[in-house]
Amino acid sequence: MRVVTAALAIATGIIVLLGYFFPPLEPLRLTLVNWAIAIAGMAVLVGIFNLVAVQMEKIRSRQKGSVYGAVLVISLAATFVFGALVWGPENFYLRLLVVEAIIVPVEAALMAILAVTLIYASIRLLRRRVDVMSVVFLAVALLFLFLVVPTPFGPVPGDQALLQFLGMFSRGGARGLLIGIALGTLLTGLRVLFGVDRPYGGN
Amino acid sequence: MSIGIEFISALIGLILTLLIFSYLIGDSPLFRIAVYLFIGVSSGYAAAVVWHYVLIPKLFQPLAALDPFALIPLVFGISLFTKFSPRISWIGNFAMAVLVGVGAAAAIGGALLGTLIPQFQAATGAFDLSSAAGAVNPAFALLEGTVMFFGTVLTLAAFHFSAGRAADGTPKRPRLVEGLAWVGRIFIAITLGVLFAGVYMAALTAMIERLSSIINFISQLTGL
Fold it and tell me: Does B141 touch chain A (CB under 8 A)?
């Protein structure tokens, strides 16, 4: 079975990859990608089903925090029933009661809390680890904020030139990080296609 | 403000914002209820979106049109539910293999065509004298390109972990690579500092938006 799963992964991967470069394989590539999208959609449902199962088990065994689990399960079931089966995700009332009343305000409020926790983390960084890197990191962050945030006295003189100078270094580093991530992705993908890594249970 | 669906929506948003802000005092049941509600609603909404925009067009509609090939992703998809039982979970490995294979190929294609080639082109394009001549300040454009090029190379050098052995047997990078990596880490610190400032500004904007929405709601409610 392990050989079959590995062969399946390698074959589908190679066909999809070749489909990028050889036009005759394009229809087969699109078919495989569409299958993968459908399977991924089912995987999302399996993941959500698992989330519900774990919370239901917490409620059934009356574990600590099971009330929160009940809130999660009820809200999930209600949203899914109305969003998938009754109204549809683009329905006006669903968007108003789910997206605008719950999802957007909670996301924005959690993001707002981040403003406080980031300040706290910066202070802790200077207390726990004072070296060149952390000092450069915080100094650049403060300088960037000083140059970008509006002040009561108008723009800081020479702010655009300073931002351009700072951007020269940050863009170089960002490009290096992006290329590093892409090289890592490339290597991981090739390891899967060569069967060295088998994260689908093929050992 | 009339009591309609918009009012109820704004009121729920206000209450949830206050529940989330209660975390600033400390972790409390109020905060947890808001977070669990958020996770439940987001998951339910994600499932509804997947149902409508993925499963219906890619799976159920082809099945309704009696497309025999639609049975393949259906069987693979259903087999994923065997992952709940350790005894028969191996059946789901075939679907996982297809997902991983297609995902790996898409990742390779994306990394190559979407990041590596365009980034290499942009890094080397900065030394194109014909385009630098068209810039407002050609000398600065060339300087910028040079600094960015060295920043890229030195950042990559910071992740160079091949090492030889020191006299005491501990792994040690060559002195030149160590020096280049140190400068590369400075570039990374500058980049992360700018990113941190960007995230902080986004967080600050979200806080201003939430506070102004609370003030607007109360002022409309009281008519002030």
Answer: no
